[in-house]
Amino acid sequence: MRKLVLVIGSLSLLAACHPVDRPAADFGDAVRQNMAAQIIPPSPTAASMPEEHDGQRTDSALQRYHDNKVYRPVGSSTVRIDQPTSPGVSQ
Q1: Half-sphere exposure of 65 (CA within 13 A, CB side)
Q2: CB 58 within 8 A of CB 51
Q3: Are 70 and 64 in contact (CB under 8 A)?
Q4: Contact status, residue 91 vs residue 85, Cβ threshold 8 Å
Q5: Are the C-beta atoms of residues 71 and 64 closer than 8 Å to each other?
Q6: Cα–Cα distances in Å, from 39 out to 33, 46, 48?
Q7: How far apart are CA 85 and CA 91, in angstroms?
């Protein structure tokens, strides 16, 4: 029994001396490549510049919104172009 404990202890100490496997130098490159392909970095010039607004026009639009007098959008319509049909095709 004592011999068994010594053998198991020796083997565990020997296993601790085994060098640690390091990941390959290119480990994680696929993830970084995918992230670079899918993430668009914000432009620092556009992100740092404030948007320009006409204060009077913005105030007027906000007041119309609160008074429920918003300008209605002009309706848009589609244009139908009649094309001659091929023989044997019904409309």
Answers
A1: 6
A2: no
A3: yes
A4: yes
A5: yes
A6: 10, 17, 19
A7: 8
Note the pLDDT tens digit of each residue in 24-45.
Answer: 888 889 999 998 888 877 766 6
Contacts of 91 (CB under 8 A, 6+ apart): 85
Q: Mean pLDDT over residues 78-87, rounded?
A: 66
Phi-psi label, residue 68: left if phi above 0, alpha if psi -120 to 50, beta otherwise: left
Which backbone phi and psi does 46 adopt, to 5 degrees? Answer: -70, -35
The SS3 of residue 60 is helix
Indicate whether 62 pLDDT > 80. yes
Are 57 and 63 a contacting pair, CB within 8 Å?
no
Q: What are phi and psi of 33, to 5 degrees?
A: -65, -45
pTM equals 0.28
Q: Which two tokens stand for residue 37?
A: 């392909």
